[in-house]
Amino acid sequence: MFSYSKNLQNLPPYFLSRIHALKQEAYAKKLDVIDLGMGNPDLPTPPHIIERLTESVKDHPRTHRYPQAKGMPKFRSAVAEWFKGRFGVELNPEKEVLSLIGSKEGIAHLCMAYLNPGDVALVCNPGYPVHFNGVYLVGGKVHFLPITAENNYLPDLAKVPEKVARKAKLLFINYPNNPTAAVVEDLKFFSEVVAFAKKYEIVVVHDNAYSEVTFDGYSAPSFLQAPGARDVGVEFYSFSKTYNMAGWRVGFAVGNEKLIAPLEKLKSFLDYGVPTFIQLAAIWALRSSQSCVQETVKVYQKRRDFMVNGLTKMGWEVAKPKATMYLWAKVPDAYIQEGSLNFAEKLLKETGVAVAPGVGFGPYGEGFIRLALVTHDRRFHDALLRLKKMLAKGKEK
User: Fold this and answer.
1) 336-370, pLDDT tens digit by residue?
2) Rounded to whole angstroms, how far apart are CA atoms 206 and 323?
3) CATH of the domain at 248
């Protein structure tokens, strides 16, 4: 009998796949599904980026050839320029910037580059699943750092056992945060992370995929802005949310050349990098007017305000986030004992509204659901009506 990798077998259940399966069943039955489950942008890629891509594919056949795994020099230079303009941090494009086939791929590959079986990684939880699944896939051990409303969704590094801290090789952080939408207001927390990482010789992995999706005057910082962060940190970025290029699969990692080098080496053996025509379009995105990003943010802010106000009116208290395209909401009291997965399943079956169960983001996500603001504006009114119906039904229990 054929068998597959024990590391793959040992992965925790991917609860989001259960919701996906239920959505497919609903679609097959011609049911009207409002999908607020996956963080998959519904807004189109800006026209000027698409035009650059099509021009490259049509008029420049050389862009069809194998690219460089680390990214073309022009792409890396564009990233360095954008980073300096956005955060005031100078990067060496030759040694401190690396192209990625999306930040998710990069984070998983970083785990492969750094971890041996049995090595320990510190992972904030609830968190983006690849932060812990990437560790499990290489046979590493995960030590979860709880992030809750009580601690402003920041990990308490002082509570990490000394024995665990001394064994740890990686520390994953993510602000603005997926799934909780939490943010850091300044560099104070990042400075604490730097001190902790230097004390225990840990590499910090900061997932900054939502740096540009911010509201109400808030601007997300880079981890590399904190004093000493370049000595210990690698930061990941994605074009998926900033430019609505989720399906294009392009991102980048930045950081100290000694920390980036293992990832670059691994990728040179595993893939050929991002297609050249996509890199050229990404360069155009970075160097062109950022008004398209501002327009995207306005749409998400409008959706955020509409949903938060609507949920609050029906008695479902939800915090108004300063960033991301998500709402992080407690499971209503009437359903809390059933768990977030059962509630999400019931919500989909009975109302057609798909959400992500909190437990899908790790054990400390239990008791919550994540709503992604990724459907047509006219659908949010329908979603609220259906959620109100579910809430009323729960009160009758």
Assistant:
1) 999 999 999 999 988 999 999 999 999 999 999 99
2) 16
3) 3.40.640.10
